[in-house]
Fold each of these.
Amino acid sequence: MTERYPQGHKYDMPDARGHFGPYGGIFVAETLMPAITELNEAYQRYMQDPEFIAELDADLRDYVGRPSPLYLAERWSRELGGAQIYLKREDLNHTGAHKVNNTVGQALLAKRMGKTRIIAETGAGQHGVATATVAARLGLECVVYMGAVDVARQALNVYRMKLLGATVVPVESGSKTLKDALNEALRDWVTNIDNTFYIIGTVAGPHPYPAMVRDFQAVIGREAKQQCIAQAGRLPDALVACVGGGSNAIGLFYPFIDDKSVKMIGVEAAGDGVETGRHSAPLCAGRPGVLHGNRTYLMADDDGEIIETHSISAGLDYPGVGPEHAWLKDTGRAQYVNITDDEALAGFHALTRMEGIIPALESSHALAYAMKLAPTMRKDQIIIINLSGRGDKDMHTIMQREGISL
Amino acid sequence: MSRLANKFADLKASGRKALIPFITAGDPYPEFTVPLLHEMVAAGADVIELGVPFSDPMADGPVIQRASERALSHHTGLRKVLSMAMEFRKTDQDTPLVLMGYLNPIEIMGYEDFANAAQRADVDGVLTVDLPPEESEACVSLLRERGIDQIFLLAPNTNAERIQKMDAVGSGYLYYVSLKGVTGAGHLDTADVEQKLQLIRQNTALPVGVGFGVKDADTAKTIAAIADGVVVGSALISKIEANLDDPQQARHEIITLLKSMREAMDV
């Protein structure tokens, strides 16, 4: 999508084989290699195809509802007493989160490639819903793999997917969460490779997924940059986004990578606290390894076995992270911090009460970090937080946590 | 010449095909494994593929997934598997042993430390499911320097160009996965396999083992007629799973199955 960055865009990761420095790449079983090659060729071709881009842009406008607003949270900013906080309102997208930006794009690609069957993995269910949504619209068969633990804690999204005509398969292996759903989706793909398109929901997986999902999500950052300049007259000082796999964060960060004055801060889920070991923060407390087709930071023990993760937010409950985040961390271009379950809940309540916006628990991690950051900044400085999703899906989790029943 | 190359050369000279059992190390408990390896050799195994348990076995079906989970419940990780290999080698200097698993345990140990440890354990080959030739150079060269073969997988949809790539980087043998899917699934289509083997042989002189779908003496015999080696995994591990309360019975059934395969292949 180089034509979308006409001047001064110099950052050009990944290389042709999907490497972000030592990270990324293609680490998959042989059966998947031809499918990945086919996908990569289609991705390279259609991202340069004006007709494809025009169709994508029209879908993003008319179906997703883009552009999403950049909203100045005036009351909350005043309360925190520091930087001006702007929220990029991805929660207002069709289906309630940023995930749909990517599924619309990949579904168009699937259609161009003549695939008739869509599969996906999902954690919180947002990506599953966004996939089931576009599959319904295009009349494609859709199977969504979801960890059995997540099926239980995100029952509402499971029902939404079923309403949309998708088959939801609860995954009972391993830790029964997002990583296991990914394993199962990969097994399905290996088995049904001829007619099936695998819509990965985050910037992980084998190349071209990390770059492709980023390119579909980069609309967030492109809009935010234009809007910030139009509304505030200048670039922001800091971007803050939550990081599970990292797709909403990369979507916001990517168009700003060459704007060195803009700080980029990814917020991982600390669960009970990084020091307890019960967390989902591979960039803050993990180590490089290989999982799900790419080299990146992981939560693994000394034997290389993947450690179970913990987070109140199902969407962040993943032991790996997109390889581009690993690279941005190592190069120092982005910083990665972490926020506990309790802090995220405080962020959730703060935004709900101060601005009348109920955020997703995932996004609440970014909000909670901004609550620490904003007071340390001047009032003429600007933070953009990616409000990646809305909190309707989390009502049950929050009620349970806070001992409330209806 | 490596132990694997020797073995395949010997087999060829005597007109026999390799019987290659796969079991997951540490399944159902650590002490079960090494004695079973010796018994499998006695039952006619020529090469052993020893599975390194991994928490996220993406290319495996439910049978081997559960084997990994049972093994990991006793903490059988890569280090433990290497010590099992070393123990096996103490009393068997003849049978090639191949470690089969996923890349992450090797990444976390570090390629050089792993290569050294594999050499100390006198391991003959390493088969890493999620390490395609394009990404393998760093690891393979360290293994090669130590005389350890890197074995690559071929799939039904692997084209000639990629077979040549595996031929260039791999050694020991190539492992043809006879169907699109995970381990333990589906049925073999012999005509398909035969046709594919023609393409493979046009592009490599390495011996070719065939696996995925080998369930009994009949399928072993059919595959032995066209390939250089027959790999059997899930069918053996199913015996463990069916006899979790009686491991001796599992051992007995595994050995009986292997013997019947050996017999059928040698007729």
Amino acid sequence: MLQSPLEKAAKGESPWVKSWNRFRRHRLAMTGLIVIIVLALMAIFAPLLSPYSAYELNLADRVSPPNLKHWLGTDGTGRDTWARLLLGGRVSLSVGLVAVSISMAIGVLLGGLAGYFGGKVDMVIMRSTDTVMCFPSLIIIITLVAVVGPSIYNTMLVIGLLGWPSAARIVRGQFLYLREQLFVEAAKCLGVPPLRIAFLHILPNAIGPVVVAATFGVATAILMEAALSFLGLGVQIPTPSWGNMLQEAQTLTILEQQPWRWVPPGVMIVISVLSINFIGDGLRDALDPRMVL
Amino acid sequence: MTQYIIRRVLISIPLLFGITLIIFALANLMPGDALTAMITDEAPISGETLAVRRAQLGLDKPIPIQYLIWIRELAQGNLGYSFVIHIPIGPTIARRVPATLELMGLSLLFSIIIGVSLGVISALKQYSVLDYILTVLGFAGSSIPIFFLGLLLIDIFALTLGWLPPSGIGTAGEAFSLKDNLKHLLLPALSLGVLRTAVFMRYTRASMLEVLRSEYMTTARAKGLRERTVVIRHGFRNALMPIITIIGLNLPVLFGGAVIIETVFQWPGMGLLYITAVRQRDYPMIMGLALISSVAVLLSNLLTDIAYAFADPRIRYD
């Protein structure tokens, strides 16, 4: 009698399969996932998808509207917009990924320490988290860029350095709940060292919300990079990024008469950020059913 | 209540200390010091005079002492001198404040009114076609970079249709008129407001759905109250509570957005001043603006929390 439900459970799906099934039913999230895979492939194989180089100047053929030779036209120095769009995607997406990896690493570490040890450690870490959250982040990011100078690596770094507080808060919240659970008690009794318990026993159980936060974080980081590069403080020309391609639209003639130079990168940002937000929404439903919204 | 406010103000003090510490550290990483800002290149000064002035200003003292001197000056409203225009920073920034407040105020008002109403409608018609469309639009609104939206609006409404001016705060050469000013304000305020409209809509929807499921709603209906009264007096008022917090959390983002939108629309507020300062490497000006906007965010968070305590009696007694 006692065996049958256990057997059923043993044959049942693993939590990951269950999550995947929940995710698969989220139509917007699946659409987002497919779009992002396509965009990622385009970014990876960028040079193969266009006969032109993103850097090659061609003064004879500059400012030409979209045609059979140049699908999306050319810019003021005759560079092919399609080629720059592909390579710009590579730059924008990787800045987003690297920046989020940095902020997640910091956030998980600090949030984990605060949540596991509590007391004074918790107070100091959470106070610094509050301080960083209090800053208008774009303004502090621009200030940091003004100190270290604009470049693609500094862009990744400063966006990453300012993005960790929300992750830290989420991880701390999870740890506060998980550290009271029996499996932690058991590990303590076995004499497992505290840091090992925190990061090898508790952290894997808190991974769901972290993945969700990281996904939304990538969307925010891409928007942040676009804004910085648009202002001329992020990725520097001639390296293309979706944000700095839009810099050109600050000239009214280009804005009004040469839409092929600035509309495509803008649309690409919207598509990729929208897809990532859809994926994030699906992941939240799939991994963290307790969370509302 | 008084006790709660006092406690909340006390919590802000270490935050204020943290902010000044970080800004001071950044300022020290930057090239040049307060003295470099005061002298012009036109009149050369000997190295000896510089050393004397530096000592007078306390710039030869150890870093912690310099920090204390800086705090003392800040407390008296002295933010230092601009590297580029060699005039005090405080009054220069103060002149830019009204334009930024006008822009942020209108856009925030717009997003609260539209966002909250759409959120309520969406929740009341959960799973309807309208709810689905609003949800997707909400995602779109929070996925579009605001500078791209601003450029699109300029292209459509200013350049192609010619209905509204593309940039500035008023028509050049004309005397100030409110109508002219508002015409210039409309596009930037709209671009700045769309993102938060989407955010407020999503949170209002979630909060409203949660309230609609609660038992006191059933009680209210069982008492025989009209559906309107139930939804508005019992539902909406309770759903509004968490939204106050969300509005407060969005203020720092609003500051960042203002920097971008003021640049796109050449709106002469603090944000444009800030970007100009960054491009000219005017470090004291950058620091002054970063400090002022951080403190403004800190104060508005404080006000949000106090407003929340007024609205929700449960907060005061924990």
Amino acid sequence: MKARWIWLRPSGWSTGWAAEVALAKRLIPCLDVDGGRVVKGVRFEGLRDAGDPVEIARRYDEQGADELAFLDITASHQERDTLLHLVEAVAAQVFIPLTVGGGVRDCADVRRLLNAGADKISINSAAVARPAFIAEAADHFGSQCIVVAIDARRVPGTDAAPRWEIHTHGGRRPTGLDALDWAERMARDGAGELLVTSMDRDGTGLGFDNELNRAIAARVEVPIIASGGVGKLDHLRDGLLVGHADAVLAASIFHFGTHTIPEAKAFMAAAGLEMRLDPVQVEP
Amino acid sequence: MQTLAILDYGMGNLHSMAKALERVAPQARIRITQSAAELRAADRLIFPGQGAMGHCRAELAQRDLLDLLPELAREKPTLGVCLGLQAALDFSEENGGTQGLGLFPGVVQRFPTGLPEAPGLPPIRIPHMGWNRVEPTRPHPLFEGIAPGSRFYFVHSYYAPAGSPEVAAVTHYGLPFAAALGRDGFFAVQFHPEKSQQAGLRLLSNFSRWDGASPASTS
């Protein structure tokens, strides 16, 4: 078996993966929610309506989404609480992991969202404002439910040796923090997973910033979710194969009917990636 | 009408479990409780848990559950989930070493850093997070109707070793580990059935009807 792998690797882990690896790569549709509706913008601006969150969540669950992400994208800058009742409504119908984020400021917020039915809580701005929050939350609730969202933008003029800077508040506020150092620190403090969004790519349809994801994946042991920029199925595949992510997150291509979840999964499986295909066949 | 009690000892999110049980056992009373009287009166018991082992033991001790829980697990069908599996072993290496409930033999260990997922592949990520295949090692009523190799959702950094006679299912993540352990009326799973869509709901449905008899206990 070993010899077979050595032979296969130069061609880019194309075939045989499924025979050796059992853990599936994850496909995570993301519901950006604003004012109780699913919306989607370009580079975090210019929002378009994409429908009712509960209805969309149910559809994605039926289609075999591996998890759902539910981000209240305006919560942070408008100082609003995430819409707990929407989380409750989604959680009551969907029996796959649900990550919820947006405006999470302290352990009380985490508690409220978990009680509403979230499984993992995504934290961004509050971690930058008070880095000790991540260690507190991980200690209190366990790393398994603490996701740190890293919104990073390339520092202009660093193309040869790229650097990325952390932004907060839906991408509007630069922080001066280096994204790779920050990722390492957050993982050390107890983040169970990192949700890495390229601000340069989000909503553009140009694909993930795979260089960013690969650089972070090399620095931390925890799983990485690639986010921001998916416009076609190749981008999802490349996020896993080139960007070394463990999960890929996308919004627009599913919301606006460009592709379905089963299409995306079949495409990635055909590229040799281990995927959870049809929802499991269970006898009645 | 049967009562399903979910043990509430301050370790993690119990609402997902309650919702899933409501779905599969709409006739049952679902109680999230830490009251010894309610736990004793229940027909079936769920011992969930997320977080760290040291914290788990402290919370159980604070509620006088360290002796009661093993006693109840011997009396009525009991399902341990995630940390509820790990806490049932003799010992865990987490938090500098934590004594377990001793319902199953063995030591819970952390996945080794740098372990390749398979020969020639990159190292595993820790925690083990996502949908992995579960292979039952023997027939068990809780896996009835679920195809071998079905995927369930996992999230954990520590694991119970495969290899003891109590192992009921195995999963591979760089190494084989116990995805399920069972002895008599106590069954424990490392994955989260309440988050594992159809396969998970089927397992919970099987549990809601299980009388606590298992092939291993009679062989």
Amino acid sequence: MSLFGRRERDIIMEGIWHKNPITYLVMGICSALAVTVKVETAFIMALGVMFVMAFASMTVSALRHQMPVSIRIIVQILIISILVIIADQFLRAFAYDISKQMSIFVGLIITNTLVLGRTEGFALGNPPWRSFLDGFANGTGYGLVLVAVAAVRELLGNGKLAGLQIIPESLYGAGYANNGIMILAPGAFFLLGIIIWIQRAISGYREER
Amino acid sequence: MEHYINLFIRNVFVDNILLTYFLGMCSFLACSRQMQTSIGLGIAVIFITAVTTPLNWLIKHYVLGKGALAWAGLPGVDLSFLIFIVFIAAIAAVTQMIEMVIDRYSPALYAALGIFLPLIVANCAVLGSSFFMDQRGYTFAESLVFGCASGTGWAVAIVLLSAIRKKLWYSNVPGPLRGLGIAMIATGFMAMAFMVFAGLRF
């Protein structure tokens, strides 16, 4: 069994594209939208989720034969919260400003249903290395959507991309104005709706009403 | 008293936990297909946030906060890094306990709410209320009012969305947009409508 055989590559592709956690699985939207006003915070959030998902899936998978079925949910939540505490303390120590901007949303990775959904749905029935890849791939797919939403919101709402001014000053002089709704909550909902629309139009997935 | 009424109205309409802070989106989208389901889940969430937010306030101020263990003779101990794990454990325990109590004393209510209770542990709105309570430095009474308000705000939003989705059933939505996509856009319009309340003051 090689480390990146056919099955492993399938797992990675499914997580990132075919079964993208946000557009296909309807999961993990909760703690995500609020950090997408800026690309910087979205990127850090994506890294945090990738870290937590990859190691939570691996740990749950390694413990899957020892875990009594009746208390498995609470055990998984505890494993996830320990990893979130590590991520949060790391951010506070090395990127204090960003951790302040993300306020409570790092902590809310605990209740991100995507993490629990993958440990429950995949890691409980698969060996550790594959679970690690699955968690990592789903975290990546999730992060890509997050960064895409953030890029559009920051560009249209502030005229910037990752903090750099993209839209030239002369355009503002000619009467161009930033789109305020993109900074506010409704903009995020609309954008995510549109991204889901585009992704599903390409991948061909349809929902029954 | 006026302060508390203001706090309540503010957190139900202006700072709605779902439409402004995006908390609890997962069960919001998954359980809003039917009116009956969304009402049941909404009531369960109001109940749990109203209990767990003040409970977590007590935990924060008597066990975990900086210097909170002074009553036990340990004034120098700061356990606030444990907040995440303890808050979620408290929520899970309360939900489990309420489930058992309801099962024992009110089978009818259990039949109506029972299936939603496990969903609540993984609802960000509940954990988020506790985190906001901690971050905004509420007093105990404020945290009780805030818990009720954020649960109510969430319930109002999910019931409204389920009504909208019922109407959507009869409209011809483009294939790739069906289900989740159109629900997100409808939520966007709801969030826009709720922004009108921002001028509301009592």
